[in-house]
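Lecture 7 notes: from sequence to structure.
We start with the chain below.
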Amino acid sequence: MWHWIEEFARAVESSAVGLDLVSAREEAAAKVRAVLEEAEGIQTPTVEQEEAIYRLLDACRVFMRDRRGIDTILTVESLYSFLVLADTPSWSSRVHEEALKCVINSVYSRPDFVSETLLPKGFLTRLMEFATHGGTTSLHWLVWKVLLVACEAPEVSRHLSSSLETWQLIYATLFYGFKHGEQADIVVGSRATLHLDLIKLVAVLVNEIQWTAEQEKRLPDIFRTVHQLGNLLLEILRFEHPDVSPLNDNLVELKNKAMEVFMLLPGSLLAAFIQQQHMEIADVKDGSLLAPVLDHLHTMLLAVRIEKTR
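Predicted structure tokens for the same chain:
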């Protein structure tokens, strides 16, 4: 079986003609499923097993982009196998990350499947637990990417938007990512993608809640956490660094998405937020909500002018 994994990986990498046939894809998918079942039971992988499973997952991720003939690995059982490999400490971080990429491909554009599996079978809870674990920035990005993609299913976005734990975890993750380490690196690599997808998720959840005054009273803890998030998004809008151009593509995209969150707030909530901002930072020059918003709009106008002159 391990020899077959290498053959499969090479066939996927070379876009072998044989894998274009549905019958060949069905056969390969069945073998992938068999290896996943076997891998679930490995508690202490050898070096050879580690390399083989990494190769399998790396190839499987690409193989799953074409869904013809792969029903065998688009099942609840395979999703469970990917999650086990992503969460078992004895496997390396690169196996964890490839397994999560396969999870993303399992749920992408499959809202009905997500509705039937992630919530009823406890997978969503398990993913939220993943997000509390230690790990690389890229690993955390992949966990949140799964949750963001899963929000294509309305049940998932409704569940997450009404969960205080979710809001607190988003805030804690974004706060740590933005404040920790070298500030210039917030727009570089996996750190930048983590921040962007977290804010995308915030936008989805804010849009889902569609707040009213009654909801604010009914969910005061969530409202307070979202207010904290609002303050953090303002810091992101205000972000400047001598080593980062205001026109840096990642920075502009990050600030655009932060702006979108404020645009999704109901008028009454936005007005209340602006008023509280004025009260909290009345002694700070240009500290209001409008200042960083106007600064970013000016940057966007400059970016448009530069683009037009090219």
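Points to note: The chain has two domains: 1-157, 162-310. Residues 8 and 59 are 7 Å apart (CA to CA).
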